[in-house]
Design a protein that fits this description.
With 185 residues, this protein is an alpha/beta fold. It has one domain: 3-Layer(aba) Sandwich (Glutaredoxin), CATH 3.40.30.10. A five-stranded mixed sheet has the order 7-6-5-8-9. It has a two-stranded antiparallel sheet with strand order 1-2. It has a two-stranded antiparallel sheet with strand order 3-4. Helix 4 packs across helix 7.
Length: 185
């Protein structure tokens, strides 16, 4: 079907122009598919490999932190324990470094190991210092000063477009319950 443009504007194929962008593609564009690297040196595409098809918990951290980050990871281990078999299959954790130049895979691995969190389904992520900040910015987690990063937990399921921010001191039961509810949608 062809329709004339408004007041001698260009001719537009209305059928083609009216086709919506698929939801999954819109989510991929929003969250980005930037390459990221995990604690094992494995490369992933942020949306396609880590978000799509999963319920996720996302938080910001950096490996040289001496206070909040270790405590937060320790609390997340309690959440992980309450998730049981859902962890790693339906639910995964994405720990995003806000100190990209310093947090290389070896530092990510040592941090995860030191805190008992180096296990399948828990990704400690960093990436190229010019591209990884885009991922952080899209999530509202970017900061110029790693010691001034957000401590909120972001939980969500891209397939349902359902996202929540949880306070960092939410009980492990509350966080696990939110993740299970999202996974069951």
């Amino acid at each position: 079907m062809v329709a004339a443009g408004w007041l001698n504007g260009p001719v537009v194929d209305v059928a083609q122009a009216a086709e919506p962008v698929p939801v999954d593609e819109r989510a991929r564009q929003y969250f980005t598919d930037e390459p990221v690297v995990d604690q094992d040196g494995q490369s992933h595409r942020f949306y396609s490999d880590l978000l799509a098809g999963h319920t996720v918990l996302i938080h910001a951290f950096y490996t040289h932190c001496r206070e909040a980050c270790p405590l937060q990871v320790d609390r997340l281990r309690l959440v992980r324990a309450r998730l049981g078999s859902a962890f790693g299959s339906a639910v995964r954790f994405l720990s995003l470094s806000v100190d990209v130049p310093r947090d290389l895979p070896a530092q990510l691995k040592a941090f995860a190991h030191r805190h008992g969190a180096d296990e399948p389904g828990w990704y400690f992520l960093s990436g190229d210092s010019t591209r990884f900040p885009l991922v952080l910015k899209r999530l509202g987690l970017w900061t110029d000063d790693p010691s001034d990063h957000q401590t909120l937990l972001i939980v969500g399921r891209p397939a349902t477009k359902h996202w929540k921010k949880l306070r960092p001191h939410a009980s492990p039961e509350e966080v696990a319950r939110a993740l299970i509810q999202l996974a069951d949608e």
